[in-house]
Amino acid sequence: MRRSAYEEGWRWLEQAEEDLRWTKDLAERGGYHLACFLAQQVGEKALKAFLYAHGEEIVLGHSVERLCHRVAHWEAEFAERVKRWAILDGYYVPTCYPNSLPDSIPARVYTQEAAREAARLAEEIVTFVRQWFSANPPELRP
């Protein structure tokens, strides 16, 4: 039996929430570059959760900014936060690959402050999407 759009979105949100837990843990214990990268992934997964719940079957791309614009077609409030949350896109590649940082490596560059801020932004996205799911349980969906 195929999952409903809502159920598929919920699966993505659940994974985003689990990843957020680890993002926060890394932001406190070390591995700050990994916390920043994971924060971007959390934001991406939460936004994709929303899109899947709205019936999109294939959601491609990794940009939080672009995903926010797509989500804003259904929820205008997302458009107000795009610039704030788009900061997470800066953590997608440079946190992983040494060749993206001249004369250094991600493990030496990212700080606890950056990791905490990235985790906070990711948590804002998850919270926003979670609130939408809570306000729109499957029985109220068309």
Describe what this molecule looks like in 3D.
The protein is an all-alpha fold. It has a single domain (5-133), classed as Four Helix Bundle (Hemerythrin (Met), subunit A) (Up-down Bundle). The chain is 61% helix and 0% strand. The chain has helices at 5-29, 32-53, 64-71, 82-85, 106-109, 112-135. The longest helix has 25 residues, at 5-29. The protein starts with a helix and ends in a 7-residue tail after the last helix. The model has no long low-confidence stretch (mean pLDDT 94).
Morphology call? elongated
Q: CATH superfamily membership, which one? A: Nucleotidyltransferases  domain 2
Q: Return the CATH topology.
A: Four Helix Bundle (Hemerythrin (Met), subunit A)
Would you count the extended β strands for me?
A: 0
Secondary-structure element pattern, one letter each? HHHHHH
Highest-level CATH class: Mainly Alpha
N-end to C-end Cα span: 20 Å
C-alpha-based Rg, rounded:
16 Å
Low-confidence stretches: none
Helix content: 55-70%
> What is the CATH architecture descriptor?
Up-down Bundle
Report the mean per-residue pLDDT as an integer.
Answer: 94
Count of alpha and pi helical runs = 6
Structural category is mainly alpha
Number of structural units classed as domains: 1
- Biggest β-sheet, characterized? none
Relative strand content: under 5%
